[in-house]
């Protein structure tokens, strides 16, 4: 299933767009899946506010996924409870959290108890590929835990910052992928030709060979959801930035829907 996530509304949320309004917008674009990922207000919502948000999602016909950072049991159990409130079947996380940098060798033991609880609830935990952890090490953690309830959220754009090739990341992660983050990316010369900027671009105009990812991972055959997000730099003013963000979302949805 193709979905939108809060990272596709990054600047709109910064300018006051509520979660319920994002749900309305996703529905208007014919989307039936929404990933609430790294959305800080979620963790401070009251039970009533959570119930209202879950109701708004249901009213828009949306399946919900959640996202956080970190593998501390307290954090993952908190998101297990949040997932149950939204009837979410997947939680994305990362090895490193806002206040934690665990040793990768300790990760399997940290994860095992919470992964068992996720499995018992029928919820998948997907750890994202990113620059702080080598993809091979992340795969090693997943394989060491050895539960079908633990897998990988594949985002090959992130690993470029540790000089991994996106295609290598895709190949290593493919057997364990449970979720895909979709965005295009490119390098551009900075002013004065003093270095490069690595950031997002409009889908289809950058370096991401998404057809290759589809061929290797086969997300649609395997029932793996594809979540649209962006790395959109500030465009000088809020109006231009939000207009660009919405254009990138439309372009990415069109790209995904037109790709078999």
UniProtKB/TrEMBL annotation:
Domain of life according to the entry: Bacteria
InterPro entries given in the database record: IolE/XylAMocC-like (IPR050312), Xyl_isomerase-like_sf (IPR036237), Xyl_isomerase-like_TIM-brl (IPR013022)
Pfam families the record matches: AP_endonuc_2
SUPFAM superfamilies assigned to the protein according to its UniProt record, in alphabetical order: Xylose isomerase-like
Keywords from the named record: Carbohydrate metabolism, Isomerase
MF GO annotations: isomerase activity
Domain Xylose isomerase-like TIM barrel: 23-251
Protein name as catalogued: Sugar phosphate isomerase
Species this chain originates from: Microbacterium faecale
């Amino acid at each position: 299933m193709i979905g939108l996530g809060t990272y596709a509304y990054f600047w709109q949320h910064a300018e006051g767009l509520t979660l319920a309004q994002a749900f309305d917008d996703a529905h208007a674009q014919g989307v039936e899946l929404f990933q609430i990922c790294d959305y800080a207000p979620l963790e401070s919502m009251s039970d009533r506010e959570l119930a209202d948000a879950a109701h708004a999602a249901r009213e828009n016909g949306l399946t919900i996924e959640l996202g956080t950072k970190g593998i501390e049991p307290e954090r993952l159990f908190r998101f297990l409870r949040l997932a149950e409130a939204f009837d979410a079947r997947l939680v994305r996380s990362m090895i490193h959290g806002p206040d934690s940098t665990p040793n990768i060798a300790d990760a399997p033991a940290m994860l095992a108890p919470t992964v068992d609880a996720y499995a018992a609830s029928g919820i998948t935990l997907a750890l994202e590929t990113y620059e702080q952890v080598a993809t091979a090490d992340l795969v090693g953690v997943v394989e060491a835990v050895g539960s079908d309830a633990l897998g990988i959220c594949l985002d090959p754009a992130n690993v470029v910052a540790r000089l991994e090739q996106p295609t290598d990341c895709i190949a290593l992660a493919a057997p364990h992928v449970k979720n895909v983050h979709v965005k295009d990316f490119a390098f551009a010369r900075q002013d004065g030709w003093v270095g490069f900027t690595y950031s997002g671009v409009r889908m289809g105009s950058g370096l991401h060979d998404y057809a290759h990812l589809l061929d290797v991972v086969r997300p649609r055959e395997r029932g793996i959801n594809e979540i649209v997000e962006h790395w959109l730099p500030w465009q000088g003013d809020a109006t231009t930035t939000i207009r660009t963000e919405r254009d990138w979302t439309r372009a990415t949805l069109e790209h995904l829907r037109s790709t078999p």
